[in-house]
Amino acid sequence: MFDYDKWQEIFESIKRHKLRTALTAFGVFWGIFMPVLLLGAGQGLSNGIQYQFSDEAVNSIWLNTGRKSMPYNGIQKGKLIRFDNSDFDFIKDHYDDVDNITGRFFLSGDKTASYKNTTLSFTVQCVHPDYKEVENIIITKGRFLNEDDLINFKKVCVIGRIVKEKLFEDEDPIGKEIVVDDITYKVAGVFYNTGWW
After folding, report:
1. How wide is the angle at C-alpha 33 spanned by C-alphas 31 and 39, nearest 5°?
2. How far apart are the C-alpha atoms of 59 and 65, rounded to whole Å?
3. Same domain for 188 and 106
4. What gap in Å lies between CA 87 and CA 103, rounded to an integer?
5. Residue 123 lies in a domain
6. Residue 65 located in a structural domain
7. Residue 76: helix, strand or coil by DSSP?
8. Whole-prediction pTM value?
9. One domain for residues 20 and 99
10. pLDDT at 197
11. 115 neighbors 184 (Cβ within 8 angstroms)
12. 97 shares a domain with 44
């Protein structure tokens, strides 16, 4: 049952104590607004991080070079550590639990890539065939690198979709040759990767 007197008393109290009412209302608003804002920001950050890593295998690990932090076996502190193909071969040959293994080497600076009369600069990286699995590469045309390419030292490349659009426009790039810093490569495939190209 509606109690008119009680409600009238409430509204009278609100009118008499305007500052207290405003501060109480602001406190309730702030108490609701802040958790919503923090939860939204946290969820947005979580979604952003998940998107950044969505192009990599969930159980992948990358090893990077660095400098020695302490002297060992005659090698002084601060010496640059470099990986080479023997390190790659050692891991591949001695660790059976590793499903896919790849090296990744970024060539320093942007490299010029030319096709017919078009020359543009792009980032170039050298990888092994398993890179396709580790980085969840999506092949949109042609194929990715394979073991035969490595064994026979074939000059083949796989280009990103942006490279394809800029250099070849509407032309099919598969089997065509591009020149990257004076070395000619045959295009074996076109790929898409959410994290890069």
Report:
1. 105
2. 20
3. yes
4. 10
5. yes
6. no
7. coil
8. 0.64
9. no
10. 46
11. no
12. no
**Pair 48, 95 in one domain:** no
Residue appearing with tokens 């302490």: 70
For 147, residues 6+ apart whose C-beta sits below 8 A from its C-beta are 129
d(CA 164, CA 187): 10
Residue 154 pLDDT grade (very low, low, confident, very high; cuts 50, 70, 90): very high
Question: Any idea which of 48-57, 58-67, 106-115, 166-175 has the lowest mean pLDDT?
Answer: 48-57
pLDDT digits (tens, 9 = 90+) for 38-85: 999 999 998 887 776 666 666 777 788 888 888 888 888 888 888 888
Q: Are 83 and 128 in contact (CB under 8 A)?
A: no
Enumerate the H helices of the chain as residue ranges.
4-16, 18-52, 85-94, 131-134, 147-151, 161-168
Q: Domain check: are 24 and 107 in the same one?
A: no
Rg of the chain (C-alpha set): 30
**More confident: 178 or 98:** 178
Instruction: Please give the torsion angle defined by the CA atoms of residues 101, 105, 106 and 107, in that order, rounded to the nearest 10 degrees.
Output: -150
For residue 139, which amino acid is it? I
Are the C-beta atoms of 91 and 82 separated by less than 8 Å?
Answer: no
Tally of structural domains, the chain: 2
The boundaries of the domain holding residue 113 are 85-192
- Tokens of residue 50, six digits: 């998940």
C-alpha to C-alpha distance for 143 and 128, rounded to whole angstroms: 13
Identify whether residues 92 and 186 lie together within a single domain: yes
Alpha helices by DSSP H, 71-142:
85-94, 131-134
Among residues 122, 181, 126, 183, which one has the least CA distance to residue 149? Answer: 126
